[in-house]
Specification:
The chain is α/β, with parallel strands linked by helices. Helix content is 36%, strand content 16%. The chain is globular, with a radius of gyration of 22 Å. The structure holds 4'-deoxy-4'-aminopyridoxal-5'-phosphate.
Amino acid sequence: MRTIERYESQVRSYVRSFPTVFERAKGALLWDREGKEYIDFFAGAGTLNYGHNNPKVSEALIKHIQADGIVHGLDKATVAKIDFLERLQQTILQPRNLDYMVQFTGPTGTNAVETALKLARMVKRRSNVVSFTNGYHGLTMGALAVTGNDFYRDESYGVRVNADSVPFDGYFGADVNTIDYLRKLLQDGSSGVDLPAAIIVESVQAEGGVNVASVKWLQELSALCQEMDILLIMDEIQVGNGRTGTFFSFEEAGIYPDIVCLSKSLGGGLPLAILLIRHELDQWQPGEHTGTFRGNNLAFVAATQLFDYWETDDFSRAVVHKGKHLRKTLEGFTKDFPEFEMSVRGKGMILGMECPQKGMASAITTAAFERGLILETCGNVGQVVKFLPSLTITEENLNKGLAILKESIETIQENRAKALIGEEV
Ligand code: PMP
């Protein structure tokens, strides 16, 4: 840890939340250098939906490397890329009646978002883009302009141009229809909001606090985009790849976005990002948008294996089942500890526990880490504990993690009681 402190920039972050040196990981478990075990309810911020070192992936990668398979290929044709494209079409897109071209972007989520914004602006010949309060789309300049939380922004970056932020579903409570509000802004030439090339949205705002857009709201948003000739960009980077119980989080809404950004769990832990774009929007000139690391063949090999999970409905059903169990247990905790005024929300296996009392969410994640459970906070002021276990987690490990969580809240309760009677904690 001294090496990290001495040589790694101040910008380092998760090492501060989880101050230990990790050595090994398997499935939903991690071990540090001292051999202490941790249950992972964070899964690389939604990158390890299929668990750490998924055996399907490890085996295929070893085979690929031993056979001197291509590792880096720019965007040349490779066997691994063709396998990936075919499996994506056959297993994911065609069964859902989704007809998209695939664009390989740089390997991170923010690269996909940058590309989506650039493409939308180029196709529509309009520079404005609309995003939502509490949205998070990455931290490079274009993506940062559509990211809500001011912690990440600074006037001096000068990036917040051609971007308007409007209220997400539920921002003013359940009674205000924020699509009506948006429609009025877009239709009124005097509102100050220029007609955008695109609207970018997460169906569940993950970093923003696990805010779930209703199916109806998504449908209305999609209809508004069509009505006003605006492209709809779904950012599926954190909540795609099965996180909400279906491969795409927007499936239940039955909408057909113009552009979909996918990354994180797509490569099973290896860097990979793609855009799914409607045919008619694929208006790039050859080579007009490139990048050295668009052809991560190891990630293609991993991703192709992981599509196996989507051959039948079994995996999806298991995610829904585990998600319900997780939610029910968390709701039980909110009742067990009424004094903390906590509440639960989410969809599938992304759940958030809102902790309105100052410092409570971080007190929980700190106490949990000490007891061997990895959890992070999210939300506009870090007031939400986020639950993102791998989708492949066993019920046993899920329950073990939940037991640690309960113990952590109990400890906070005891410490608070002691503090009230003046005892040292
Ligand atoms: N969009 C969403 C919805 C995300 O959750 C994230 C990452 N948390 C990003 C974009 C950016 O991805 P990356 O960190 O890989 O650039």
